[in-house]
Every structure is written in structure tokens, then in C-alpha cells.
Write a sequence for this structure.
């Protein structure tokens, strides 16, 4: 009897284990099926020198992203002058006065154009590097001819458009490939953030004030911060809540001295 | 006993005490006359700089800071740095207050606030997006997006625009793709763009509508829609349908995935209205704040002159579930104001704002001669209040003080500002006792009680970081005051001051204030009354981007009103509007400073804004004046003391204090008690530096320095900013030396003995002998460390070498940590004491020897144990010189108001004297009138010895002859009369004002630019005067002190105005006039009211206009073809086509574009 009970117990235990193994297999196979069969197809761009457009696009993206990061952190200047040091960064004054009791003078009334130019100047050398890098990679297998380059960079709402015109002739493997226009659209909020910065600078120069809460309530897409330092510089930051892109700049307006 | 109190030693002490006290104060006439040389309109060495060495554009700076193009004028006088409006051709944006040189390829125009049509924001609806932008930018955005923009010119605010954009017609767009019937829920325009078929769009229909026969099934799932707040149903095709759950950011929720425990579980799906409120701690207590609410928090007690040293007001906000902070300006230059309002659902909604603390005006009011005017203005200013000090029957006064006292920076020249402001709190009280045979009468007995110090300290503290008080960390320090001849503040009282540094849960927030007060047309909607014919337009709410009062929006949603229906009152906006008055209040602050300092220094004209704004008023004055032939650099110490005549009686008090010790109270009938109010001092050392930034308030220089004398904020501008104890390496007590280079001409330092018990003498350069009597001799000491380097220290002096440092008086009257310490000696001749103290000849002879002792304390608290000795002697000659009248108030040849017959006069004499005057030049004895003169040595003031009288009969004759006779043994009399004459003036006249009475001003933009102008003539100086205006409850000053006054109002709204203009010149001649005018604003474009055919296409407009047409819908107005006719009727050639006609009026307002289809 005892033996039978023991044997039955052993049999039950083995059965349990079997069931668990089967269940595990079912789960793994299901996961496999779900992941590989039902997922949306992902298109990947081939970013190699075999795809010059993709290569230039990726290279431009990297350079643009880097440049925009710098501009975002430094108030729209790659090399700030007329700036204040805050948390280890030099942040450009968009509106500034060196005196007490007076509103600031707008330092960047054409801020969008200024940032456009900063980016264009920065990208001019970066784009050259991109093409040179592409050429040196292609020259392992192909003969490459490159013409003169011209580029045009434009800030738009939600994007940065880069138009590059450069004749690229690739010969090899019995075929010729010709490229000329490299039009790249880079999703970026810098235009919209800049527009808000200009509005802030305008209000600071006219009213010596800007109410960030009222603005955020009206435009909840953005999160603003305003900090007045002990030296009476105001550091603004405007963040797009969806993309987390943040533009910082400084204002020095209507400074009151300590005392008279 | 008598011998003990009048022996040689005692007499010497009396003399030393008297000399030292008299010598503490600068003599105003020297400083005043030097300072009056300052050109109050310009700052020497300053000018307009096109680009500074720091890279900033168009700044008014010293030449040394300029890198490119320096011109010694204001920037407004240059062509390239004059401020205006820069309009971008590429984006259509407008940059206000921009210099032409920064405008590049843009269009630069004169109006610095961009009140132009091109800069006016309109509602530009592109697709579902509402853009509040300029018309040009609207065109650009439209082109960039490839969509047509709908411009709505009736919309007045950005919030209204966003609201309208959300109401864009949407519906089901049905189309075929690869033979499959599809449907998307979109706008008409998007649908047309996709299908090129107008019939594909079914307005107000969802794709799941069975009649459309699509495959989309209704209410398949819930989710969020981009840029929308609510939770929506989605059909099976992924199109949004009706809202499943209404969320609102303003009411505290937004669509998001459900979070257990945080959100209310939805009945269906995974999406819910996420709660956006903030769980916060206010004064240590838990609270819930709504999204959009803002509130104030403070370091301890605020208001009633009680803000603690180092404190800062902080604005807190709740936004999207996150608490943010926005610290107001440091040094309490800003205060945080809060308004709690009950909203429609019965709950309380808090709104707060940082606004300028208008404390400077409080001091300006105290310079007004008319006390009732002072009281009225003080009470009207929400940042000031009348402080009553009532100690005894004959010692009580009122003073207008700040409600929220300002903070000070005690280092460098800024320390002078602190001395200046705190000095207002110094005063002296004279106790008198008179014994008769049967009784004893006393006056001001309470001045000898502890009450005097307590009340005076309370007054002192209300002026700023002054007196004995506490910092935000709870550290009490009593080095900010000095009291003579009365008990000091008790320890109990000092400890009790700590309570003000504790957070008070019942603390009321700072007052918003009455907008009317600030006196500038900031954002008042109802300044003008809307003319009847314009009813229907209604008033408009806040026009600036993003600046609608949050509470208004909340109420709007709760009551279901729409933006266009709102007509809020000013009071609702008080908090949100208050910051918009910052620019005006800032300018007002500057103007107040100019008036206050000018009056204190006896200047004719207020200091100009450019002088004050360049580097602060005191610094500018110090840099530009000279005193006794020597540079004022380093002599700032004198400045404050020149400004406080209240210190007059201190001399007597000090003497009595010492004499009391010898004689006892019973023998003295007059005691002058003195309270000196000085800047608050941080604790010695820096053991509390680490407390800075530990609370939520960021650490700054100001907060750091108030924690300890050696606390310093290091690594500024980096991520590692921290307040640390940074004591000087040298921990020894300061070494003292003469301040070579700073001593009056004709005198020198002599016989310097170095070392801890060192000394030096002040001697006459001619013979190294004694100095002259009654002569202002400037001298100083320098404090150094053991290596000979500069060492800041606070120095004190006394007459007893064994006196403790704490009991001594401040050297030069300053309690600041300085390296160079300066003082003035003015010693009466020995015989002057003989008359007053009944001394023997031997004692008189010995009175000539002067010796006093100096001890100093370093930042870390190290003090000299052995005093440093300064010696001098006064020439023991007989007084053979007649007195000299050194100063008159008003000054000689001052202008007197037209038809004024009587005026009081104060004149100051360089030695105790009696003075008489007459209408004719006569001998002293023959003069008929006697002035009331102070003749006791201890009554000498900072200006000398004062005589007062009333001059009458001024209408007929303004010339007087004065002679004075001193009270020395020789009774010297002035040989020549002092001729005092006042200058007569005519009436001040206002010749013209602009706008003229009954005029109408037309403008095409709102707000409009309104230029107020006044031309004056007559008066004291050909019309030169200071003018102000007031109208409809608002007022402000014209900046110029001349005969032409101009004021630009750049935010005048439409309506009727009644403005008064008041001008006053330096003599007090006043004139007033008023002007009533209307501002009519036309911001509507012309409407086409009739279209007909007659020799072409004809249109009639409702106002004079320029009309243009095009056959291409996308062509902009400027590129369209001009129609003939400019009045009301316009004609174009007839063609069978679709005309797009638009008209523009003379202000540039464009009407709606009208589509006209013509047929043959």
C-alpha cells in the first residue's frame, strides 16, 4: 500500500513536470509567433556607402543633431559672445542691458535667421566631411567624381530642411550612378522654440517680465522654466514636452541694484 | 571730589571726547559744493558703444568697456544704435527694442514697440492649427505647409484663436484606394487635397456612420488625440470619434493611460483623464494645488518692515502635475504677491506673481515738504507704510518706510548704499531735567529707558538690512546699531527676534497692490471709455501671447463661456497684470532714487536716469566728485554722514555719556541720547555657510554672505556652485597704518611708530606743529595683514585705551568691512571750552593735546588687544578770527516762488556764534533782526553751528545783510557783511500740450502710440521744470527737467481721455492744465458692401480703401492687380472668371477676401 502510494506520488510529480514543460514550450512558441509573424514590418534604410543618399542623410543627421544640441544649450550660438555662464555653459543673452533701471536691448531681433546662419556655417564644413568620408569609402571599390557643393538650410515649423546640391558620379561594376540633389528633412522643434524665445525677448524688452505659467496653460505642449540668478540674469528654458528638446537663453533686463 | 572730575586728566578727556565726536562727521558744505559740480545729466566717461568687449550690442558703458565705435552720447542719439522695430522679411516676425545695426536684412522702423500693422498678430488657421502670428508669417507658414490659411481678423487673443481652430469643420472623407473603400476623419481641405473631390467630404459625419457604408465600426476602442485633452472613441479604422471622457488641462486633467491608484479607472479601455494636480507642502503642511495654480512662499515673516536678512520671495506653480519654482529677484527687489479667488465651483484658486518692490519711492516721499502729501503718497503706495515712532512726548515722529525692506550688498561701494539707507534710521533724543525749588521737571525721560533702543531698532530694521536683526537661518546679530547714553537692547529682546525667521503658517501673502497706483498705462482695458458707436466689439482680454489670466480661463470653462464672450474686470487680472507694470515701476524706482539723492545732497535738479542707471547713483557721484582738492575715491565713507542732519545732537550725547561717568546723572541737566542705525552685519566667521541652498531656495551671493562674514559663493556659473567658509589665511588681528595719500592739503602724517601698539601724529605740514582750530581735516587709516596686504576690517575708536572694542564707536561712522577708513577732524580752540566748562588756564592749555585709540576687528573676528594711538594737537592761540558763514539753506541766490513773501532760512557758521541781519549794510550792533542760533559746542552739526530765522517782505525786497559775532573771549565780529539774496521768478506757464483739447487721434493699430507733450515757459529758468501727467486714475512723470517734455505711451486703448498736466520748477512755481481728447482705433478692414456690373466689375466698400483683385486664390494682396478708384467705389475690367477681391484701408487694415464669379 505504502509502495503504491509512493509510486502514485512519483507518477503525479512527473506528470506535473511534464505539464509545466509543455506550457513553457507553448509560451515560447507563442511569443515567437507573435513577435516575428504579427509585428509590423520595419523598414530599415541601408546606411552604407552603397547607398550614398542614405549615407549622406545619416551623416547630416548626426552633424545637425550635434549642432542643434549646442545651439539649444547656448541660446542660439555655436560660439557665444555676449553671454552669461550658467551651470557650466555660456548662454547667450537674447536681450541685454548693462545698466540699472532700464529695459534691455534686443540683441537678436532676427533670431531665426541668426540660428539658420549658425547652422549653415557649422554644417558647411560638416557636410564636406560627410562627402569626403563617403568618397574615401567608395574609392575602395569605385571611381568617384564629386562636383562643387552648395547647400541651403532652412528652419521650418517642426523641421529643418537641408538642400544639398553636389554632383556625385560613381563608376564601377559596369555601371554609372549619378546623384545630384540630397534633400534632407530633419524633424526638429528649434524653429518653434525660437519663435517662443523671440516672444519672450520682446515682452522682456517692453514689460521687463514674462509670465511662464500663463503661457504654459495656453500652450500646454511646452514646459517653461525661468530662473533669476543672484546677479539679476534671467535664464529661460523652453521645452517641447513631446520631444524633450529644450532651448535655453538668457535675458538681462530692468536690473535693480541692491540699494540705490 | 570736584578735583577728581575737573583735574588735568579729566579735562583732557572731555576735550578728547568732544573733538572725536565732532570729528566723526563730514561737513556737508564741502561735499555738497563738490557734488554740485556734477553734471546731473551725463556720466563722465560713459557713452554709446556699438559692441562691448563682452560682445553685447549698443550699450551705454564706460569707454574702457567698449570694443567697437564709442561715442560719448546716449545710444538714442546715434543712428546705428537707436532702438526701434526690426521686421524680418524672411519670417515676418518683429523684434522690439532693436538697434538698426542688429537688423541686418530686416526692415527697421522707429517705433521700438512695433506698433505697426505688419507686427500685429492675427489669427491664422491652417488646417486644425491656430497660429497667433503676423500676417506675413501666416503667408509663409501657409506656403511651407502647402495649405491655405484662413485669416480671422475678428479674433483678439491667442487663446481665442486656438479655440476657433479646434472648431474647424471636420468630417468623414471617403475615398477609394486600390479599389478598397476607405475613410479618414479630417478637415474639408485635407480631404480635397487627398481626393480632389469636394463631394468626398461629409461634414460632421464620422466614418462609422452606416449611411456612408464604410468598413469602419463605431467605438472600437478609446485613446488620446494629439494636441487634444480629452479621451476619445476611435472607430475600427483608427479614426477619432466623439469624446469618451472630457478632460481639461485647466480643470486639472488630460488624456493618458490609466494609472492605478492615481487616476479614476475608466469603464472602458485603458485611457482615462489623468489628474494634473500637484501634491505639495506649504509651510510644512500637505496641500493639493490645481494645474495652473501658483502661490507664494517666504523665508519667515514678511511685511510691516519685518522681512528677514537674506530672504527671498519664491513663486511656486503647479503645471501638469509637477511643482515648479520661480524665485523672485534677489535682495527683495521683487516681492511675490498672491490673490486667492473663489471660482465658480466654490473652490479657491490661487494666482501669484513676482513684481517690483517699489521701496525706493518710500524714501522719496520723506523728502516732500508737505507732510500731508507725504502721508497720502505713502499710504497709497502698496509697498510703503507710515512707521510711527513714539517714545515720549517730545520724541515722536512718522516716517514712510518700506513694507518689505530691501536687502543690501555690503561689499565694495554697494556698502555705501546700505549706509545711506540705514542712516535714515539714526536719530537723537534730548533728555532735559529742570530742578526748581519745589519740583523737578523732566522731558523725554523714556529716551533713557530700554524702550528707546527697542523702538528705534524696530524702525531701523524696517528700512532694510539694518540694525539688530535676524537672517533667514535664524542667526541674530546686533552689530548693526550703536546707542549712546541709553541702555542697549537686552539679550531677551535679541533672542526674541529669532521668531521672524521661522515660517509662519498664518502668514498673509504680499499685497498685489492697486494697479492705479503704479501710474502707468500698462494693460488697463478700461482706461478709456468705449464710445457708444463701438458697442458690440466689446472689450478684449489680454492681448499678449500666452498672457491670459489663468483664473479667467478656469472660470470660463466652469461656466461654459467662450473666450469671445468674456469681459473680465481689472481686479481679476491684478496678479497677472502686475508683472507687466515691472518696466514702469523699474523706471519709477530710478526716478525716485534721482529725486531722493538730489534732495539729500542739496542738488537743484534730480539726478538723471542715465547717471543712476550707469552704475548706481552713489558710485557715479563718487567717481566724479572731488573733496577738498582730493579724489573722492576711497572717501565714500563720508558720503552717508554728509546726508544726515539728524546726527546733530550726537555730539552732546557722547560728551554727556562720558561726563556722566565722572559727574553722575544728578549734576547733568541735558543728556542727548543717540541711536545710530547701520547696516546689519553677518555673524563672525563662516560656520553656517553650508546652510545656503539646503532649503528649496537656490543659493546666491546675497544669501551666502548673510550666513557669515567669511562665507563666499565659489565656482559661480558652474554646476558646483557652493557657499563655503573662505576665511582669510591670515588669522591675526589687523595691523593699522596711516592712510598715506588721503589727508587734507597742508597737513601730514608724522612720527609713525609701527607695530601692535603703534601710533602716528597728525601735524601741520609747515612746521610739524599743531593743527588749526575749526578746520576740516580729512585723514584715515589702513588695515593690513601680517604680510602687508590689504585686510578688510571694522574699526572703532574711543578715548580710553582700556575701553572694550564693543563699547567703542565706529571709525568714520561706518560699520562696514573696509581696508581704507576715513574720518574728519574739526577741533575747536581750547579757549572755546573755557567758556562752557569753566576750566582753569592750565587746563585750557592742556586741552590742546588730543589723543584717541583705535581697535579693529577682521572678518574672522580677530581684534586688536592693544589699541593703536592717533595723536594731534590744536594751536592754543587766541581766537582772533571772525566767524564764517559756510552754508545757507536755501542757498544764496536761490530762486523763490513768485509772489512768496516769507521764507525760512538756515545758515551755518563755522564756530558757535550769534548772528543778526538787516536790510542795509550796517554794523553788527545796529542790525535790527536776530537769528536764533545754537551756541553750545555740543550743538554743532555736520554743517557747523546752525542759526535759523524767517525772512519776510520778500515781495518788495529779497536782499539781506548778515553779520555774526563769535562767543570767544574776543567776540570777533565779521568785518564784511554776508550778502544773502534770493532771486525772484515769474509765473510758470504751460504754453501748449499735445494732444490738444478736444482733439481726435486716429490709429490703425491697438494699442496705439500716444505722445504726450508739454511746452513750458517762465518760472525760475525759462520754463525749465519737472512735469507729470495724470488721467483716468493713472499718472506718471515726464523724464526731462527742461521746458519741453515728452512722454510716449505705447499702450493707449481706444476711448475718451481726460489728462491733467502739472509742472513745477525749482522755485516751487506750479502750473496745471488739462486736455480732453479721444482715441479712435480702426483695426477693421474695409468691407465690400455691394458688387455690380457697370462698365466692368464694380465694388463698393464701407470706407475709403485700396482694392485689388486676382484670379489666383493663392496670390497675396500686394501682388494682385489694383482696381481703379480709391474712395468707396472701385472698378476692374470685366472678364468671365472668378475674381478674388480684397481691400485695404489707409491704416493698412485688410478686409476679408471676397470671391466673385462673373458670367457673360
Amino acid at each position: 500500500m505504502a509502495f503504491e502510494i509512493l509510486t502514485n506520488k512519483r507518477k503525479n510529480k512527473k506528470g506535473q513536470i511534464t505539464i509545466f514543460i509543455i506550457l513553457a514550450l507553448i509560451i515560447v512558441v507563442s511569443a515567437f509567433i507573435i513577435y516575428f509573424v504579427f509585428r509590423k514590418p520595419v523598414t530599415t534604410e541601408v546606411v552604407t556607402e552603397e547607398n550614398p543618399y542614405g549615407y549622406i542623410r545619416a551623416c547630416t543627421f548626426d552633424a545637425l543633431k550635434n549642432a542643434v544640441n549646442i545651439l539649444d544649450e547656448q541660446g542660439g550660438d555655436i560660439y557665444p559672445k555676449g553671454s552669461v555662464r550658467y551651470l557650466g555653459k555660456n548662454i547667450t543673452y537674447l536681450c541685454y542691458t548693462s545698466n540699472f533701471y532700464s529695459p534691455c536691448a534686443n540683441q537678436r531681433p532676427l533670431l531665426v535667421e541668426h540660428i539658420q546662419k549658425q547652422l549653415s556655417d557649422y554644417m558647411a564644413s560638416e557636410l564636406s566631411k560627410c562627402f569626403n568620408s563617403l568618397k574615401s569609402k567608395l574609392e575602395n571599390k569605385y571611381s568617384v567624381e564629386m562636383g562643387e557643393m552648395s547647400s541651403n538650410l532652412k528652419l521650418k515649423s517642426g523641421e529643418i530642411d537641408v538642400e544639398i546640391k553636389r554632383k556625385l558620379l560613381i563608376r564601377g561594376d559596369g555601371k554609372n550612378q549619378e546623384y545630384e540633389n540630397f534633400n534632407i528633412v530633419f524633424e526638429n522643434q528649434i524653429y518653434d522654440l525660437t519663435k517662443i524665445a523671440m516672444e519672450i525677448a520682446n515682452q522682456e524688452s517692453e514689460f521687463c517680465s514674462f509670465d511662464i505659467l500663463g503661457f504654459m496653460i495656453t500652450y500646454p505642449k511646452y514646459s517653461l522654466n525661468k530662473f533669476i540668478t543672484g546677479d539679476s540674469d534671467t535664464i529661460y528654458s523652453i521645452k517641447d514636452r513631446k520631444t524633450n528638446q529644450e532651448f535655453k537663453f538668457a535675458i538681462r533686463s530692468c536690473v535693480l541694484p541692491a540699494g540705490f | 571730589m570736584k578735583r577728581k572730575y575737573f583735574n588735568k586728566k579729566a579735562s583732557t578727556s572731555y576735550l578728547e571726547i568732544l573733538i572725536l565726536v565732532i570729528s566723526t562727521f563730514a561737513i556737508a558744505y564741502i561735499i555738497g559744493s563738490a557734488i554740485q559740480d556734477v553734471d546731473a545729466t551725463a556720466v563722465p566717461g560713459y557713452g554709446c558703444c556699438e559692441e562691448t568687449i563682452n560682445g553685447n550690442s549698443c550699450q551705454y558703458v564706460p569707454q574702457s568697456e567698449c570694443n567697437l565705435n564709442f561715442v560719448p552720447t546716449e545710444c538714442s542719439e546715434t543712428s546705428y544704435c537707436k532702438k526701434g522695430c526690426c521686421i524680418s522679411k524672411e519670417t515676418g516676425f518683429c523684434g522690439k527694442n532693436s538697434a538698426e545695426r542688429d537688423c541686418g536684412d530686416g526692415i527697421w522702423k522707429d517705433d521700438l514697440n512695433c506698433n505697426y500693422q505688419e507686427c500685429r498678430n492675427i489669427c491664422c488657421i491652417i488646417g486644425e492649427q491656430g497660429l497667433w502670428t503676423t500676417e506675413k508669417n501666416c503667408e509663409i507658414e501657409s506656403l511651407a505647409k502647402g495649405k491655405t490659411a484662413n485669416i480671422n481678423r475678428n479674433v483678439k487673443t491667442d487663446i481665442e484663436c486656438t479655440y476657433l481652430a479646434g472648431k474647424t469643420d471636420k468630417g468623414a472623407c471617403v475615398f477609394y484606394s486600390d479599389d478598397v473603400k476607405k475613410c479618414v476623419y479630417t478637415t474639408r481641405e485635407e480631404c480635397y487635397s487627398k481626393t480632389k473631390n469636394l463631394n468626398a467630404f461629409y461634414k460632421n459625419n464620422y466614418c462609422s456612420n452606416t449611411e456612408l457604408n464604410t468598413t469602419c465600426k463605431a467605438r472600437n476602442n478609446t485613446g488620446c488625440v494629439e494636441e487634444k485633452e480629452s479621451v476619445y472613441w476611435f472607430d475600427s479604422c483608427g479614426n477619432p470619434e466623439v469624446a469618451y471622457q472630457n478632460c481639461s488641462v485647466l480643470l486639472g486633467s488630460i488624456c493618458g493611460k490609466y494609472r492605478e491608484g492615481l487616476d479614476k479607472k475608466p469603464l472602458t479601455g485603458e485611457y482615462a483623464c489623468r489628474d494634473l494636480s500637484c501634491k505639495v507642502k506649504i509651510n510644512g503642511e500637505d496641500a493639493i494645488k490645481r494645474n495652473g495654480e501658483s502661490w507664494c512662499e517666504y523665508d519667515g515673516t514678511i511685511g510691516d518692515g519685518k522681512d528677514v536678512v537674506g530672504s527671498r520671495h519664491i513663486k511656486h506653480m503647479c503645471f501638469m502635475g509637477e511643482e515648479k519654482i520661480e524665485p523672485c529677484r534677489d535682495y527683495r527687489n521683487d516681492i511675490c504677491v498672491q490673490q486667492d479667488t473663489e471660482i465658480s465651483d466654490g473652490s479657491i484658486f490661487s494666482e501669484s506673481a513676482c513684481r517690483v518692490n517699489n521701496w525706493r519711492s518710500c524714501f522719496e516721499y520723506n523728502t516732500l515738504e508737505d507732510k500731508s502729501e507725504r502721508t497720502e503718497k505713502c499710504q497709497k503706495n502698496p509697498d510703503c507704510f507710515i512707521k510711527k515712532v513714539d517714545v515720549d512726548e517730545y520724541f515722536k515722529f512718522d516716517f514712510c518706510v518700506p513694507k518689505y525692506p530691501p536687502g543690501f550688498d555690503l561689499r565694495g561701494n554697494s556698502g555705501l548704499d546700505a549706509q545711506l539707507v540705514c542712516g535714515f534710521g539714526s536719530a537723537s533724543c534730548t533728555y532735559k531735567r529742570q530742578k526748581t525749588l519745589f519740583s523737578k521737571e523732566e522731558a523725554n525721560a523714556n529716551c533713557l529707558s530700554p524702550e528707546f533702543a527697542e523702538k528705534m531698532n524696530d524702525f531701523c530694521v524696517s528700512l532694510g538690512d539694518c540694525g539688530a536683526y535676524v537672517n533667514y537661518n535664524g542667526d541674530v546679530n546686533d552689530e548693526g546699531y550703536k546707542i549712546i547714553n541709553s541702555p542697549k537692547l537686552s539679550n531677551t529682546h535679541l533672542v526674541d527676534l529669532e521668531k521672524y525667521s521661522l515660517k509662519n503658517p498664518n502668514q498673509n501673502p504680499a499685497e498685489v497692490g492697486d494697479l492705479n497706483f503704479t501710474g502707468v498705462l500698462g494693460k488697463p482695458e478700461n482706461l478709456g471709455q468705449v464710445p457708444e458707436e463701438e458697442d458690440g466689439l466689446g472689450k478684449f482680454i489680454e492681448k499678449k501671447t500666452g498672457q491670459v489670466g489663468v483664473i479667467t480661463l478656469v472660470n470660463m470653462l466652469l461656466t461654459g463661456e467662450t473666450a469671445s464672450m468674456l469681459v473680465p474686470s481689472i481686479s481679476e487680472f491684478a496678479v497677472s497684470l502686475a508683472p507687466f507694470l515691472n518696466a514702469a515701476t523699474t523706471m519709477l524706482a530710478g526716478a525716485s532714487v534721482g529725486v531722493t539723492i538730489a534732495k539729500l545732497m542739496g542738488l537743484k535738479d534730480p539726478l538723471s536716469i542715465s547717471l543712476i542707471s550707469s552704475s548706481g547713483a552713489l558710485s557715479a557721484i563718487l567717481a566724479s566728485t572731488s573733496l577738498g582738492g582730493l579724489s573722492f575715491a576711497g572717501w565714500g565713507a563720508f558720503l552717508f554722514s554728509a546726508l544726515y542732519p539728524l546726527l546733530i545732537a550726537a555730539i552732546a550725547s557722547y560728551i554727556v555719556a562720558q561726563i556722566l561717568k565722572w559727574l553722575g546723572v544728578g549734576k547733568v541737566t541735558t543728556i542727548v541720547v543717540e541711536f545710530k542705525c547701520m547696516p546689519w552685519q553677518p555673524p563672525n566667521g563662516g560656520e553656517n555657510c553650508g546652510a545656503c541652498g539646503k532649503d528649496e531656495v537656490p543659493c546666491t551671493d546675497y544669501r551666502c554672505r548673510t550666513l557669515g562674514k567669511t562665507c563666499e559663493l565659489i565656482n559661480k556659473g558652474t554646476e558646483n556652485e557652493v557657499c563655503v567658509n573662505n576665511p582669510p589665511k591670515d588669522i591675526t588681528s589687523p595691523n593699522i597704518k596711516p592712510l598715506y595719500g588721503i589727508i587734507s592739503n597742508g597737513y601730514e602724517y608724522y612720527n609713525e611708530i609701527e607695530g601692535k601698539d603703534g601710533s602716528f601724529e597728525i601735524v601741520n605740514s609747515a612746521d610739524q606743529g599743531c593743527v588749526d582750530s575749526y578746520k576740516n581735516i580729512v585723514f584715515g587709516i589702513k588695515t593690513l595683514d601680517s604680510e602687508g596686504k590689504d585686510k578688510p576690517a571694522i574699526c572703532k575708536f574711543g578715548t580710553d585705551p582700556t575701553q572694550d572694542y564693543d563699547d567703542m564707536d565706529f571709525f568714520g561712522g561706518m560699520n562696514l568691512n573696509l581696508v581704507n577708513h576715513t574720518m574728519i577732524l574739526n577741533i575747536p580752540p581750547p579757549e572755546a571750552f573755557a567758556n562752557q566748562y569753566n576750566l582753569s588756564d592750565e587746563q585750557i592749555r592742556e586741552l590742546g593735546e588730543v589723543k584717541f585709540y583705535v581697535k579693529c576687528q577682521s572678518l574672522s573676528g580677530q581684534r586688536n588687544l592693544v589699541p593703536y594711538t592717533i595723536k594731534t594737537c590744536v594751536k592754543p592761540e587766541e581766537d582772533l578770527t571772525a566767524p564764517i558763514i559756510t552754508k545757507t539753506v536755501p542757498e544764496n541766490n536761490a530762486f523763490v516762488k513768485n509772489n512768496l513773501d516769507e521764507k525760512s532760512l538756515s545758515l551755518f557758521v563755522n564756530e558757535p556764534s550769534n548772528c543778526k541781519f538787516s536790510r542795509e549794510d550796517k554794523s553788527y550792533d545796529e542790525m535790527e533782526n536776530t537769528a536764533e542760533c545754537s551756541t553750545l559746542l555740543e550743538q554743532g552739526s555736520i554743517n557747523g553751528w546752525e542759526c535759523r530765522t524767517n525772512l519776510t517782505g520778500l515781495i518788495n525786497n529779497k536782499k539781506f545783510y548778515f553779520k555774526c559775532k563769535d562767543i570767544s573771549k574776543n567776540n570777533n565780529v565779521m568785518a564784511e557783511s554776508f550778502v544773502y539774496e534770493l532771486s525772484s521768478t515769474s509765473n510758470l506757464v504751460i504754453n501748449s500740450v499735445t494732444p490738444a483739447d478736444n482733439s481726435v487721434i486716429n490709429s490703425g493699430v491697438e494699442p496705439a502710440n500716444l505722445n504726450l507733450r508739454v511746452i513750458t515757459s517762465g518760472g525760475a529758468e525759462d520754463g525749465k521744470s519737472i512735469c507729470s501727467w495724470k488721467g483716468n486714475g493713472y499718472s506718471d512723470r515726464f523724464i526731462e527737467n527742461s521746458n519741453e517734455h515728452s512722454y510716449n505711451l505705447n499702450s493707449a486703448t481706444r476711448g475718451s481721455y481726460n489728462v491733467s498736466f502739472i509742472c513745477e520748477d525749482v522755485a516751487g512755481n506750479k502750473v496745471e492744465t488739462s486736455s480732453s481728447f479721444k482715441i479712435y482705433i480702426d483695426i477693421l478692414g474695409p468691407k465690400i458692401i455691394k458688387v455690380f456690373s457697370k462698365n466692368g466689375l464694380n465694388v463698393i466698400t464701407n470706407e475709403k480703401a485700396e482694392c485689388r483683385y486676382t484670379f489666383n486664390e493663392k496670390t497675396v494682396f500686394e501682388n494682385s492687380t489694383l482696381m481703379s478708384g480709391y474712395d468707396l467705389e472701385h472698378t476692374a475690367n470685366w472678364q468671365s472668371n472668378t475674381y478674388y477681391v480684397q481691400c485695404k484701408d489707409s491704416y493698412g487694415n485688410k478686409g476679408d477676401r471676397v470671391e466673385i464669379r462673373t458670367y457673360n
Chain B touches chain A through 110 residues (CB under 8 Å). The longest helix of chain B spans residues 582-600. The longest strand of chain B covers residues 1070-1081. Residues 28 and 799 of chain B are 25 Å apart (CA to CA).
